[in-house]
Amino acid sequence: MSTVDAQVQSPIEGANQSATILQLAMAALRLTKVPGTDSNNNLQQRLRPVISLSEVAYHDCYDDCWIVLYDRVYDITNFLRLHPGGHDVLVENAGRDATIAFLNAGHSAMAIKSLKLYEIGELPPNECIYRCVGKLTLTNLPD
Ligand code: HEM
To answer: What molecular function does GO assign, one term (predicted)?
Structure first.
């Protein structure tokens, strides 16, 4: 058995126990991922609740305001009063897809990043218009 291929107990929490010294060295240099360490991210992506457009449509007022952006659903009820662009433009789009309005306002990278705070789910695949496999209509979609 060569020194490089020796099986070691991984010092990285949650990492696959059978990771080799070579795999750990490459992970340290950020050339690759240690097997077993990225499963949480994949799990999070798979666990987004699916919410249909017809359900979003029920939440269409100041006290209960959901919107759809880039095929994801956001509950922005508690954000309305804080929005730098005012609450009116948000209530006008309550209960529906506001992606084009959001894009036209020219939001900053910081605004796009803050979307995560309000995300509650995603549209079912047959209602998606931006995140369709092999059919992306926009570049730079938020994570
Ligand atoms: C959860 C959804 C939203 C978030 C987190 C958000 C966040 C923000 C933030 C942080 C700003 C300050 C400027 C910037 O950093 O870009 C802003 C400005 C603005 N937003 Fe939004 N926004 C949201 C949805 C929307 C929607 C749906 C519309 C349009 C209907 C809109 C229209 C505007 C406008 C017009 C401004 C400009 C205000 C000005 O510069 O006078 N926003 N938004």
So the answer is: heme binding
